[in-house]
Amino acid sequence: MPIRRLAMDVDKVVDRPDMITLARALEAVAGVDAVNVTVTEIDIETVGTDVTVEGNDIDTDALFAAIESVGAVLHSVDEVVAGDHIVERVSRIR
C-alpha cells in the first residue's frame, strides 16, 4: 500500500540545518512530490517543526534517513495517509 502523506514532528538545532536545506533533502526522496516545513516552537538551542510530505509512494526509510543526514531528528510521526488516494482527516464530534 503506497504511503501518500506523512505529518511529522522534527527537531533541529537553531543554526542547522536551515529550513531550505531540510526541505530540499526531503523533496529529493523517492516518491515525495511536495514538502511543507513549519516552525512550531523555538528554544535556546532547538527549533521544533511540523513537517508534512506528500507523494504517490513515499520511501519512508529514505525519508527518515534524509532527516538524519542533514542533522535533524525525527521526534514523532503524527499522521500517515496510505492507499489509492489521499483521505482528508474528519474530526469526530464528541
Topology:
Layout: E1 3-13, H1 19-27, E2 32-42, E3 46-55, H2 60-69, E4 73-82
Antiparallel strand pairs: 1-3, 1-4, 2-3
Q: Can you tell me about this structure?
A:
The protein is α+β, with helices and mostly antiparallel strands and 94 residues long. Helices cover 20% and strands 45% of the residues. A 4-stranded antiparallel β-sheet has the order 2-3-1-4, covered by helices on one side. A hairpin with a 3-residue loop joins strand 2 and strand 3 (46-55). It starts with a strand and ends in a 12-residue tail after the last strand. The relative contact order is 0.33.
User: Main sheet, how many strands, which sense, barrel?
Assistant: 4 strands, antiparallel
Q: Give the termini distance in whole angstroms.
A: 31 Å
Number of strands: 4
Alpha plus pi helix count: 2
Helix content: 10-25%
Going across the major beta sheet, what is the strand order?
A: 2-3-1-4
Form type: globular
CA radius of gyration? 14 Å
Which stretches are poorly predicted, pLDDT < 50 over at least 5 residues?
A: none
For the residues shown, what is the average pLDDT?
94
Order of helices and strands: EHEEHE
Secondary-structure class: alpha+beta
Report strand %: 35-45%
